[in-house]
From TrEMBL:
The keyword Zinc applies. SUPFAM superfamilies: JAB1/MPN domain, RuvA domain 2-like. Belongs to the UPF0758 family. Pfam families: RadC. Keywords: Hydrolase, Metal-binding, Metalloprotease, Protease, Zinc. InterPro entries: MPN (IPR037518), RadC_JAB (IPR025657), RuvA_2-like (IPR010994), UPF0758 (IPR001405), UPF0758_CS (IPR020891). Residues 129-251 form the MPN domain. This is DNA repair protein RadC.
Length: 251
């Protein structure tokens, strides 16, 4: 009597790991991370978006990297830069220093950053700046904290402290930006602004003001005041935090 054919252990070894997996799981099995993605999307919907930074970053990376587990990459990016806002604000060259970040992934993150800036600017413009100081700081940090060169920008405000315009007036070197008080005031008059907030970044990471920062701020305030333009503050943004010259009593 013939015995039925069976698969010996030796033959299973010859089939190789991939064939054994297919024999056990079946041809329709999906990678393990597919289920994780669906669960994370469900948690996002149920929580109203209130997820940790690395999980929100995972959701963003799903579309950029459709066929790979992106949790390790999301955690690596947060570990490198500190927060989701700072990941999105990091220069492309620094993003690509993290293993797994391709040109396409870096480009997608910068598109999301640009959309976030547009949204944040719209939020600030809808109400007085001073009722949303924390949102203003977050906005400035996300756009400037990781810039490789100094940028000097001005927030022009109307009589109700609503945002008229947010403009980068000068871009300098890694440790200096030329600022021309005459041009600052000229632009404020063109926009009919009644108040200003000055903002610039320190690529070194340390937001401490220099003597030149203090002197320039006082000069602009002195020129603006007789023209009915009030200088509310000068914020300095760095990777390690931010400072307000007004809070420090330096203006």
């Amino acid at each position: 009597m013939k015995k039925g054919r069976s698969t010996s252990p030796a033959l299973l070894l010859e089939l190789g790991e991939a064939s054994v997996a297919r024999a056990i799981e079946g041809p329709e099995s999906e990678p393990h991370y597919h289920g994780h993605r669906e669960r994370l999307r469900e948690r996002f919907a149920e929580s109203g978006g209130r997820l940790p930074d690395y999980e929100l970053l995972e959701l963003l990376l799903f579309r950029s990297i459709p066929r790979r587990d992106v949790k390790p990459l999301a955690k690596a990016l947060i570990a490198r830069f500190g927060s989701l806002a700072e990941v999105l604000g990091a220069p492309i060259a620094r993003l690509k220093e993290v293993e797994g970040v391709s040109d396409g992934v870096a480009g997608d993150l910068k598109i999301i950053e640009a959309a976030g800036h547009r949204l944040a600017r719209g939020d600030v413009a809808k109400r007085p700046v001073f009722s949303t100081s924390s949102a203003l700081i977050d906005y400035c940090r996300s756009s400037m904290a990781f810039a490789e060169r100094e940028n000097f920008r001005i927030l022009f405000l109307d009589i109700k402290n609503g945002l008229i315009a947010d403009e980068v007036q000068q871009t300098g070197t890694i440790n200096h930006t030329p600022v021309y008080p005459r041009e600052v005031i000229k632009r404020a008059l063109e926009l009919s602004a009644t108040a200003l907030i000055l903002v610039h970044n320190h690529p070194s990471g340390d937001p401490s003001p220099s003597s030149a920062d203090v002197s320039m701020t006082r000069t602009i305030a002195d020129i603006a005041r007789p023209l009915g333009i009030l200088l509310h503050d000068h914020l300095i943004i760095g990777r390690d935090g931010h400072v307000s010259l007004k809070t420090m009593g330096l203006m």
